[in-house]
Amino acid sequence: MCNLMRTPDSGEVNIYGKEVREWNVNKLRRTAALAFQSAPVLDGTVRDNLSLVQRLHQSQLYPPEELASLAGLPPELLDRSARDLSGGQRQRLSLARTLANPSSILLLDEITSALDPVSAFEIEELIKRHHREKKWTVMWVTHNMEQAKRVADTIWFMADGRLLEIAETGAFFSAPQHEAAKEFLKGGTR
Q: With 60 as the cut, is the pLDDT of residue 188 above it?
């Protein structure tokens, strides 16, 4: 809802004090960029995929070579078909495309779920560094509790499509307030 991939049924979602339905969709999506868990790729090469923002908006923060490097994609993949990438490489490609935008809000949906632990940690460090340097707001969806402890300042716990608890990370993990959060942290299912 933060970038109108879905329209709110009720209530308001405000980005920089303006309700999302009042934004120009293209401008909103450049401000609040989304990297998907499923890591979609477009036909063509990795370089073509990394040039998408340039083609759409006639501006891009980084050239394809630098985007690939930022996301940990080796340069020899640039001219390879994007559809031939592994799941982990596709997730890196999706993140790299997102980094091409001059966004100030990053919406990350399970972006490390297909990565090995070392690669996931590298991506975490990349996002944390950009968060510090560029003052990004990052909303990171993860079911990996260890990752949440490493990267989050604040936890928003959701279950059944509802926001049930907001807490500072340490407080959430040491003393969750909502019963569903307590069950989740004990390993229960929801």
A: no
Is residue 102 over pLDDT 80? no
Alpha-carbon gap, residue 82 to 6, rounded angstroms: 27
- Band (122; pLDDT cuts 50, 70, 90): confident
Residues forming beta bridges with residue 105, ordered by sequence position? 32, 137
State the pLDDT confidence band at 190, using cuts at 50, 70 and 90.
very low
- What Å distances lie between residue 176 and 61, 95, 117, 129, CA to CA? 40, 31, 27, 28
For helices 117-134 and 87-99, the axis angle rounded to 10 degrees is 10
**32 CB-near residues (< 8 Å, 6+ apart):** 2, 3, 15, 103, 105, 107
CB neighbours (10 Å) of residue 74?
A: 12
Q: Where are the beta strands (DSSP E) in the chain?
A: 14-15, 18-19, 32-35, 105-109, 137-141, 154-159, 162-168
Task: Find all residues with CB under 8 Å of 80, minimum gap 6, and list them.
Answer: 45, 46
